[in-house]
Amino acid sequence: MAGFVFVGPGRVGTGLALALSAAGYQVGGAVSRPNQSVTRSSNRFTELTHLPALQWMDARSLIEQADVVFLTVPDQAVTPVAQTLVDDGWLHRGQIVAHTSGAHSSALLQCVESVGAQKLSLHPLQTIADPAKAPLLFTGATFTAEGDEDAVTKAFEWVRALGGIPVRLRAEDKAKYHAAAVLASNAVLALMGVVDELAGLPNGWAAFLPLVEGALNNLRTLGPKEALTGPIERGDIVTVQKHLDVLRDNPTALLVYVALGRATVSLAAQKGSLSGAQRDALERLL
Ligand SMILES: NC(=O)c1ccc[n+]([C@@H]2O[C@H](COP(=O)([O-])OP(=O)(O)OC[C@H]3O[C@@H](n4cnc5c(N)ncnc54)[C@H](OP(=O)(O)O)[C@@H]3O)[C@@H](O)[C@H]2O)c1
């Protein structure tokens, strides 16, 4: 058997292949997309993992021999790729077919049921920009799993072997969970883009890194409510009004400030740092 095989040797496919190999699992290699010759991502896969990355037309026996076929392709390609594997007769009973989308459930893999394969969605709650760093980044990361019961049980074993934290998620909760993941990751970077533009300091966003790191350290030790400081937490309506006045000529920054300001009022209210009058005034302002 070929153990794990990855269709889509991109960031997550390569990262998982590296991490699973390092944890002692057998990884057979990767497969490029159908109708595509060798790609940059397949070359990089082989460079990093020293495992083969085959073109689709050469991949039949690798996929037939796999215990687990991971479709680490863009979300919209998961179902068409799974359907092609079913139509070509490359999958069989006893295999697990998995995807790593955060927003979509294992229902994207419904078609593999027709050949008796099991379906799994396994999402690493981590951002992978450089697959070489993935094994380190997966340590301590939460992985959410959902799908056929035996496949989820096996996925929990893999995740523990990677040093991750396995968590079961219901299919219907995935979209909301993934929206939260996007806010925790991509939105933070977008926010730093706004910060950079707004402050106009010569050292740009980097000037704010110690502040961001300070807030993260407080979050780690105290949690969001107790870590919260700033004008809203102090009920300082005059300062918030001043901020809103200067943001009028930057509609994106104003929108971000108002949206996050409302969330801050709600957190400060939960913390109990605002009087009823201060909360009402801030809510009217924002
Ligand atoms: N990156 C992250 O931080 C992250 C984190 C958690 C989950 N995920 C999920 O992991 C999955 C893969 O994401 P990624 O960031 O690893 O993507 P990626 O780096 O862009 O890699 C995608 C891979 O799929 C191949 N591919 C593209 N279109 C295809 C198609 N139509 N049919 C077959 N293969 C195709 C690409 O090959 P080519 O080289 O030919 O383009 C590439 O090897 C997605 O479901 C994503 O939501 C990503």
Give the topology.
Elements lengths: L3 E4 L3 H12 L4 E5 L8 H10 L3 E2 L5 H5 L3 E4 L6 H10 L8 E4 L18 E7 L9 H5 L3 E6 L1 H13 L3 E4 L5 H11 L1 H14 L9 H19 L9 H10 L4 H21 L4 H10 L1
Parallel strand pairs: 1-2, 1-4, 2-3, 4-5, 5-6, 7-8
Antiparallel strand pairs: 6-7
InterPro entries: 6-PGluconate_DH-like_C_sf (IPR008927), DUF2520 (IPR018931), NAD(P)-bd_dom_sf (IPR036291), OxRdtase/DH_put_Rossmann_dom (IPR019665), TM1727-like_C_sf (IPR037108)
Pfam families: DUF2520, Rossmann-like
Protein name: DUF2520 domain-containing protein
Description of the structure:
It comes from Alicyclobacillus acidoterrestris (strain ATCC 49025 / DSM 3922 / CIP 106132 / NCIMB 13137 / GD3B). InterPro entries: 6-PGluconate_DH-like_C_sf (IPR008927), DUF2520 (IPR018931), NAD(P)-bd_dom_sf (IPR036291), OxRdtase/DH_put_Rossmann_dom (IPR019665), TM1727-like_C_sf (IPR037108). It holds the Pfam family DUF2520. Residues 142-264 form the DUF2520 domain. It is a single chain. This protein has 286 residues and is an alpha/beta fold. It has two domains: 4-171, NAD(P)-binding Rossmann-like Domain (Rossmann fold, 3-Layer(aba) Sandwich); 183-285. It has helices at residues 11-22, 40-49, 60-64, 78-87, 134-138, 149-161, 174-184, 186-199, 209-227, 237-246, 251-271, 276-285, and strands at 4-7, 27-31, 53-54, 68-71, 96-99, 118-124, 142-147, 165-168. It has an eight-stranded mixed β-sheet, sandwiched between helices. Helix 1 packs parallel to helix 2. The mean pLDDT is 96. NADP nicotinamide-adenine-dinucleotide phosphate binds next to helix 1, helix 2 and strand 6. NADP nicotinamide-adenine-dinucleotide phosphate is lined by residues 8-13, 32-33, 36, 39-41, 72-75, 77, 81, 100-102, 123-124, 127-128.
